[in-house]
Structures are given as C-alpha cells and as structure tokens.
Amino acid sequence: MEGLVEKAPESRGDVVAMVTDECDLEHRDRRDSKEDEVELMSAGEDRQYSTRDAQNTRDAQNTRDAQNPKDSHNLAHRTQKENIFLQNSDCKDSLKSDQRVQSQLERVKDNDEIVEQSNEDDQEREQFLHSDHTHNDTHQQKKHFKNNKDVKTDDGSIESHEKKQLKSKYSNDGSIEFQDNQEPKNTRSISGWKSQAAFLRNPLYLSVLVLTVTALSLIVCFAFLVLDFALLQGWTVEDGVMLNFAYQLFNLVSRVAMGVASLHRRVHSVMLLVVCGLIGSLGLCLIGQASSFPVACVFYSCMGAGYGGVVGMFPPAVLAATGPAAYPLALGLLCTVEGVFDVVAGISTGFLVDLVQSYSIISLVYGTITFAATCLLLVVFRCCQPIKTLERI
Known about the structure:
This protein is an all-alpha fold and 393 residues long. Helices cover 81% and strands 2% of the residues.
C-alpha cells in the first residue's frame, strides 16, 4: 500500500504534462493554419494587383496609340524590319553553311583524286619492276645456258664451260689464280664524271688556276736563277746568297701571315690570293730594273712574299670556287698544270737570258703577265660571283 501511495503523485504529474503537450500542439496547429491563410490572402492580393497593373499598362498603350497613330505605325514598321533582318540573317547563315559543305566536298574529291593517282603510280611502278625483274631473269638464264655449253679440252674430252672455269680458278697447289678474262667493274658512271668535271666551266676556278700557274712558275724561275742574276749585275756570290735568303725568309713570313689573316671571318681566301698576286707581280716587274743590292733585296722580298702567299692561299681558293665534292680533282689538276708550267717556264727563261743577256725585259714581261692574271681573278671574283654568294673558306 505504501508503494502505491508513493507512485500516485508521479502518475498525476505525467497526466498533467501530457495534457499540457496536447494543448500546445493544438495551439501551434491553429497558429500555423492562420499564417497559411494570411499568406494565401496576400498572394491573391498580389496577383490581383499585378493583373490590374498589366491591364492598366495595356490600356495606357492603347490610349497612346489611339492618340498618336504615327508611333504605332513606326513600331509596326520597326517590327517588320526586324523580322526581315532575321530572315536575311538566317538566309545568309544557310548560304554560308552550304558553301562550307560544298568546299568540304570539293576537298574530299581532290583528296580522292590524289589517292587514285598515287595508286595508279604505284601500280605502274610495280609493273615496271616486275617486267624488269622478268627481263633480268631471262637474260641470266640465257647467259647461264650459253656458259654451260660443252667445250673441248686439250686432251680431246668434252666438259662444260662452268666446270672448266672451276678448274682454272684454282692452281695445282690450291691457291686462287687471277682470271685474265675477268674485267674489273666500273663503279663510277659517265654522269658522275661529268658532274665532278663541271668545275672546268667555272670562271672563278679557271681564274684561280691562271693566277696560280703564272705566279708560281714565273716567280720561281727568278728564285732558281738568283745567283746568275747577281753575277750578271756585277755582284758577288755572297750577294746572291743574301738575295736568296731574303726571298726564302719573306716566303715563310707570308705563309704564316696569310694563314693568320684567313682566320678572320670577313676576309675571303680569294681576296688574299689577289693581294699576294699583286705583291709578287710588283716585285717581278721591278727586279730587273734594280741598280743596287739593297733595292734588289727589297724586290726579292716582294717576290718571296707573293710566292709564299699564293702557295698558302690557292688551296682554300680552289675549295671556295669548286666546293668539297670536286675539290680533290680540281686541286690535282691545278697542281699538275702548275708542275708542267714550272718545267716549261724554267727552260724558256734560261734560253731567253742566254739570248738577250739581261733580266730587265724578261722580268717586265713576266711581271706584266702575273699582274694581268691577278686583275682577271679580281674582276671575275667581284663581277661573276660576288662575295656574298661565296662560301667562306
């Protein structure tokens, strides 16, 4: 009984709480329903107000159009122009798209024609190769049949030509012998020789050849005859040796100087060759007119400088004129011609000195020839092939 009495207040409190909660829920539901009704009423009023505003706007527009018919006519005309512009733009877009499609079709057609042409070319090439291969096979069969004909040997027996070749290929001791009837194959065609010899029609190479041959062959004659020149002038042998020393010294100095000058990128080897030719021709012209030993030393030094410079610079000048492909053949031809002229010039100079007993006329003629060859190279270099078109060597 005591336990029941104690639990009664707790159950009464729970009942009160439940009743309170139910009252709160009903009050909350009633309040939410009122709020929804208020919102619906406000939305209806807003809709009525918007409808009334739209109707008022239309009425005002109609009144304005009735009062001013020109504005309404302008508006209709503007609307019509806008519609026409939209239609024209649509037509232009469709025309552009049609043109684009047409150009793509033409491009595809051109590609198809190119592919067909390439296929036809491939078929023709295959047919040509097949026919060539068939012709080679037929030729080899005929040659094999011809070589395999039976031939008579020295003892009267008959054996095939192939067997005889195998027997003659090896000697009795087993070593291989060289066949006299085997000719070496010519690996270089005629067209290759013609292309390599095309430098013979190059005016720059021919001018370099003329200057090199004349300068070297004519100057070296006076270098070889230096002792005879000194004795003919009334000087001693020691003076002739000193003249030769001056010639050889400036020959060496000129080679070194030309080599250093050719390292400069703005200096061309042909121009250096021209400078050396001018120096050598000057000394060669004036050496016969020298009346004293010091003047003769100066002129022999000029000849040595010109000779050494020409020797040092004609190989790169040949390379600049002919190119790397034809350079070996062009250089070999120039050296061969120069050697022949050395022999001819030495013999002719000795004969002329014995004939006239003087070096003045011979030096003047030789110097004039060398100067003319130098001027020819300069003119060809500047006129026929300007400096900008030549490769620097």
